[in-house]
Amino acid sequence: MSRVFSYCRVSTLDQTTDNQVLEIAAAGFKVTPQRTIVETVSGSVPASERAGFAQLLNKLEEGDILVVSKLDRLGRNAMDVRSTVEALTGLGVRVHCLALGGVDLTSAARKMTMGVLAAVAEFERDLLVERTQAGLSRARAAGTPLGRPQALSDADARTAQEKLSSGLSVAAVARQYGTSRQTIMRLRDRVIQ
Question: Domains of the chain: which residue ranges?
Answer without folding.
Answer: 4-118, 154-192
